[in-house]
Amino acid sequence: MRVGQLILLGEGVAAISLSPFAPDPLLQAACLIVGVVSAYSAFYLKRRLGFFAAGYAFSLGAVGLFTLSKHPIARFAGWEGVSVIAWALVAYGRGGTPRSFEAALVGFAVNRLGDAFWVASLLSPEWTWGFILGGWVKAALFPLTFWLVQVMYAPTPVSALLHSALLVALGVYGPIQEPAWLHTLPLQHIQLAAEVAALAAAMGAFLSRVPKSALAWTTSAHLALAAALWAEPPLAQKALLTHAYLKASLFLLLGLVQKSLAWTAPLRLIWLLTVVLLSFAATPLSPLSLVAEGLTAFTLVRFWRAYPMAGKTPWPVVFPILLTMVGAIYLWRQGLSWHSESLLPLLGAAAGLALPWPRRAYRLDKALIRLFHHLERGWQSLAYQTSRAENALLQAYDRLFTGLLVLMRGTGRVEVQLIDRVWRPLLRRLRTGLEAWVHPTAAWGRTYQPALQWAFVITLLIFAVWRYFS
Amino acid sequence: MALFFLTLLWLGPLVGALLLPLGGRRWVLSVLTATTLGETLIWLWLYPQVKAATAVTAAIPWFTWGQQTIFYALGASPENLWLLLLSILVGNGAIFYGFDVLRLRAFAALMLISLSAVLGAFLARDLVLFFVFYEASLVPAFVLIYQWGGRRRAAAAIRFALFTLSGSVLVLVGLLMGLYAGYGASWEAWRASSLPPAVVFLLTLGFAVKLPIVPLHSWLGEAHVEAATPVSIVLAGLLLKLGGYGLLSWSWPHLPRMALPVLIGWGLLSLFYASVVAAGQTDLKRLIAFTSISHMAFIPLGGALPRYGLMGAYHQLFTHGLISAGLFAWVGLLEKNYQTRDLRLLHGILSQHPRWNLYGILLFMAAIGAPGFGLFISELMVLWGLGTSVGWVYTALAATSLLLSALYFLRAYQKLLTGELPPQGIGLFLAPQETLILLCLALAILSGIYPQPWLSLLAYVGS
Questions:
Q1: ipTM of the complex, rounded to two decimals
Q2: Could you tell me the pTM of the whole model?
């Protein structure tokens, strides 16, 4: 056994052991899920095991910071820390390829937009809409599901974590942690919006052909159903945490199926059981929720048809089984209530058994991801244009300084003219006169010296006469 | 005792600069080590005293000017204590970083003179003394850019001098107006009452050139691009901070209430404009220069606010000084290996150097303001100040910088890590250079994970 595997296993055991002592329900779920996913990764992943172990540990720490801290800045550090670690896990998970970086950047950038809303509310107590908007982005609720579909490029264990207890879960859990915030908002309208988002995401899953993308869309649908329960925090928490355990299980199962590109009977059975349990996670509030849940269950069961039956069941199936069991126990302890409406999701699940895997897919996120890239291209174009404006500004300053220099030079020229035309001739004449007085030259002396001498003598005489008579 | 040690703190580098011509490279190394150690020890002596008494000050009369007595007054307080540490570490670290330059002794001497002036300006407790040091820092910086820069260094140096001298003229006029209006030049007298709006306006404009705030920033891009890397480190890490310190400590202690919306609007303009321009850059140094302007926009955003805003602005000066110094040091490493800083030519280089890749992503994350780094705490505090004092709209607008910085930094990082590899590059192990990067990173992480030593002192400033 390699060192990396030992580290991941040790981390798994430690996280699961810590789980009962976690004082917060989300942290408890996160410990358990990170523990199981960590142990699963030890056998599923082949390279960069230490990196994944570090990423899991940091992300768990960030969730702990968010759930346990009372200080707004520390809470925001946890909230955003999860995004940063998710970026690293997605970007480097497959060895840092351009595509993985692209996916990671889309996820991180959209999350940061949500963070801006979240932090505005967290630090401005009078404005509570930011929690909802930030949570909406973080939970990848429709129409912002596209970033979650993009980060599907990460290895399966990472996807299992990001879709269950770590990244998206915070989006729904954040607002319900402080119910006082929520009561200032029009929760009925938010519920309606969340139900519409759930239906749209269920439609996205239904139209998708790539299994992991379809699973990502179902995550968005389930989280939207949980968000629709924001007015009833205990119910929302139950829906969220049940979803966390069971969706992590589904991802781990899908990872095993995709590795051999085949189903086996036990895998299908656990898959079906998990999907059925998942149908009971959220309490349906309206026909809209029921339809969304039915469509999601239908899509999930239809996964049976994505791959043929072949081969043996791999032994790491114990990890998803463990998570499904934990999810079932959690659901049981929270109260597994049966309603006649619950038949609809079950009927949807049954219908999924019969229908084939779609041959053609329609990607609802395509338009949105295109919009994102358009926006980014626009941003780049703006950046280049502004850089030109920056150069123009620089040139304007240069002109200003050059103008000053020209002014100085002009003043200098006037000064030169003054010296050349006025002062220098005057001084020259004065100097020549004085020189002639002291050392008369032939030409000059002959002309002016006698006159000057007589003028001097006459002046002296006039002065003497004036002094005598005054 | 306090006067002796405070004087020694700024005089030490100056004496070191005068001693440098007496020996060869080994002598230069000894002198630099001695000044660094000496200054660090003095700072370690100051820290507990400031913590206990909130300020260590000393003053003697310098000269009399009309009715005013100008003091040779120095002091260490929560406002400048961390900036002093930043100056000591980054200023000396930059000299060690540039130990392979031509004409080492002249270079090191000028860098030490510059450091001495910066330390003096941070320590000064009299506005006239502050101005003397503030002006003195320009001369060595000008010569350093002019002598050790790139191809267009002369133009960059002259532009730097013209801009900063213009700013200094405004500061000088503001200072004289304040003095003639009867406000004493001492720290306590100057900050005791509200200054006339004209004085605040002139000082703000003058220091805003140095910080810089858009549109008074045009000197910065060229100066950073053309200056040698150690000089860029000092420019971004220390000299810009002088402008910020001037604004926070000398211009805005009692800002008129009506100026607040103007400053916030100005800060937001600077933040968005610099972010947009940064995204369009292909030269790594210019990119970092514009990110510096974008980050420094948090000074006008938080500096005029009470409590958290002001604390965050002071904290930002320290953390951004570290991170920008680290980023320039890192770009210098790449340039030394590949003889270029052009992002279009450096595709994929980080995949060749795992260690530099690690430094790069840590520095970029630090500059993005990711949790766990000092800048995260600073920016959050400014946002908090905006949220509690002004309103959530401004917090939300300023918080979009989180998104913008992620876009331009991560795109640049993506280009450096992925793509076709360049043909050359030898991957030198450069101990002094890497030490400076590690030092900056270590302090940036420490101030992000355990910010208590910073915040406990800055709480005094905020109150």
A1: 0.84
A2: 0.86
